[in-house]
TrEMBL record:
Residues 81-112 are annotated as: Disordered. Signal peptide: none annotated. It holds the Pfam family DUF3140. This is DUF3140 domain-containing protein. Residues 81-98 have a biased composition (Basic and acidic residues).
Length: 112
């Protein structure tokens, strides 16, 4: 298949393989992670900016993706790859490591 638009076939496939949380799972996680004892963020602004961007990308058709979306997708793929060695035990990084990855849509404990 020919590559078209700002997102190549390779990036599209890698992003969707590494972002293993559904839109609903990610939205729920961002809301939970952003909820504090004293305050809770507005649902559409909950969570880290990158996580919100990933959520937006998951809700788009490939033909609607922008150059900026492609940069976020590349950033997420690079980060997940650098922090997630395939030989590494998914529990090896601890809670804060896992939560950081989950805020980008990748749950290392989720079965492949």
């Amino acid at each position: 298949m020919a590559e078209s638009g700002p997102v190549s076939d390779t990036l599209w496939d890698e992003f969707h393989a590494l972002v293993n949380m559904t839109s609903r799972e990610l939205r729920d996680w961002l809301s939970t992670d952003a909820a504090g004892e004293e305050t809770e963020e507005v649902p559409d602004r909950a969570g880290k900016r990158t996580g919100r961007r990933v959520l937006g990308i998951l809700g788009k058709r490939r033909t609607d993706l922008t150059e900026d979306d492609a940069r976020i997708m590349e950033q997420v793929c690079d980060t997940v790859r650098s922090q997630r060695d395939v030989s590494r035990d998914p529990r090896a990084g601890g809670d804060s490591w896992r939560h950081g990855l989950m805020s980008m849509g990748h749950d290392p404990l989720k079965p492949a």
